Amino acid sequence: MSDKQDFMDRISNQLNVWEAQIDKLKAQIDEASADMKAEYYKKLDELKERREEVKKQFEEVRHSGESSWENLKNKVEKNTDDLKASFDSFINRLKQ
Q: Where are the annotated coiled coils located (predicted)?
């Protein structure tokens, strides 16, 4: 398997994890107090928007040639790492 395919599989799996987390987070937010719901849903919407940005970048890499995908890889990895940290932070905040 090529480096590009390994990368694509890893990012695809992460996108799927986030999709599942979004569903779980919605359920947790619905159980939150009324005054916190609006704030939590706003943050969740931000995470969903950022996930869509990573997904668009993922599609750019998918459609790029073998030689040009490396240029996009670093950008996607950084945004993926940042988004993962944001998801983790939000999940921890909901647990409190």
A: 8-64
CB neighbour class for 72 (10 Å; exposed up to 12, middle 13-18, buried from 19): middle
pLDDT below 50 — which residues of the chain? none
What is the Cα–Cα distance from 9 to 22, expressed in whole angstroms?
Answer: 20
CA distance 26 to 9: 26
Q: Which residues, other chains included, contact 30 with Cβ-Cβ below 8 Å and sequence gap of 6+?
A: 37
What distance in Å separates the CA atoms of residue 61 and residue 72, rounded to the nearest whole number? 6
Phi, psi of 82 (to 5 degrees): -65, -45
Both structure tokens of 58: 């993922």
Residue 45: helix, strand or coil by DSSP?
Answer: helix
Please give the full DSSP string across 13-28, using - where no structure is assigned. HHHHHHHHHHHHHHHH
Q: Are 29 and 41 in contact (CB under 8 A)?
A: yes
